[in-house]
Amino acid sequence: MELLGFHREPENTRFTDAAVAYVLVALWHEGRLLMVRVRGRDCWELPGGGIEPGETSRQAAVRELWEESGQPVSEEGLRFVGFARTALPAGDGPRRRVLYGALYTAEVSRAEPFVPNEEIAAVHWRDGDEPLEGGRVQTVDEYLAALCRL
Question: Which ranges carry the Nudix hydrolase domain (predicted)?
Fold first, then answer.
């Protein structure tokens, strides 16, 4: 994924050049950032994923965080930060798919235990920029997390 820009627009903004198609959540606990390791990608990233039909980006953020990490956060507990404009490779060739992702942040007072699932192999509460075993850390996600450090 390539970060093309970051926009601090209102949460209900719709863009003419691409859809708001996914969400990311920077979740903090005692100053540490939650990272998830996605199976098959061997990298660490922020929890998040696609917005389902009929779902708001805020609802998707709550759902994706729960599905990927088992961490419960209410819609009201999320703070909207802005939109990441990103490009993804579109198969073979030079074409890229441009999408917007809604970025949210929150803090939890208690970290719930994690149970590996079909999508996520592990989670880690990261302190600073230490390297993580099992894959590289997505640099785009590191940058976005820094924008919403509590």
Answer: 14-150
